């Protein structure tokens, strides 16, 4: 414990307090000896970084619990299926910075539930660089992250319906999943064009 506290730059008393608050996982025990590893050190450095960013210990405890019970990256990304999205690895403090302090336990839980976030040791994995960047841009425009995530859930439902329509169109008796993958860009083109025209119609309708 003394060695871990020294590496983390905190006192043993503070480390005991964090243990009592369950901010760090318990050590591996061999008889009377408690062994800590780099996972504990990473968590302690994360706690320090989040405290410096204005998070409370109660909030950090809730975040830690969410991380500990979140899906791991293997479950999040499936069994290595090909995807056009690029996952992003973040530390908890980097995630807090990306969303300007709105990485609350409630928003984190919503992101985990949507399947946007998973965990890999002390790191967080976001499934899509494009979705992460778009969400962060909306937050920096003043839109609350909670509203972004709520809308994302509705978008997910519509996206699933669109994917079902395209699959039903392509996968006839003489076509295979390989054809579906080959024609996938056409589905994206149709959806992007239709969304663009729909935005135009809405904007014209709002003009005085």
Please report the distance between the alpha carbons of the first and last residues.
68 Å
| Topology pattern, helix = H, strand = E | HHEEHHHEHHEEHHH
Global structural class: mainly alpha
Oligomer designation:
single chain
The side-by-side strand order for the widest beta sheet comes to 3-5-4
Mass-distribution shape: elongated
Strand coverage percent: 5-15%
Count the strands?
A: 5
Biggest sheet, open or closed, and with what strands and sense?
3 strands, antiparallel
Mean pLDDT across all amino acids:
84
Using only C-alpha atoms, the radius of gyration works out to 22 Å
The tally of helices reads 10
As a percent range, the share of helical residues equals 55-70%
Low-confidence stretches: none
Topology:
Elements: H1 2-8, H2 12-20, E1 28-30, E2 33-35, H3 38-52, H4 57-69, H5 73-77, E3 88-90, H6 92-98, H7 105-114, E4 117-120, E5 123-126, H8 129-140, H9 145-170, H10 177-205
Antiparallel strand pairs: 1-2, 3-5, 4-5
Helix pairs in contact: 1-3, 4-7, 7-9, 9-10
Q: Can you walk through the features of this model?
A:
By secondary structure, the protein is mainly α. Among the domains are: 1-52, Multidrug-efflux Transporter Regulator, Chain: A, Domain 2, CATH 1.10.1660; 152-205. 64% of the residues lie in helices and 8% in strands. The chain has helices at 2-8, 12-20, 38-52, 57-69, 73-77, 92-98, 105-114, 129-140, 145-170, 177-205, and strands at 28-30, 33-35, 88-90, 117-120, 123-126. It has a three-stranded antiparallel beta sheet with strand order 3-5-4. A two-stranded antiparallel ribbon has the order 1-2. The model has no long low-confidence stretch (mean pLDDT 84).
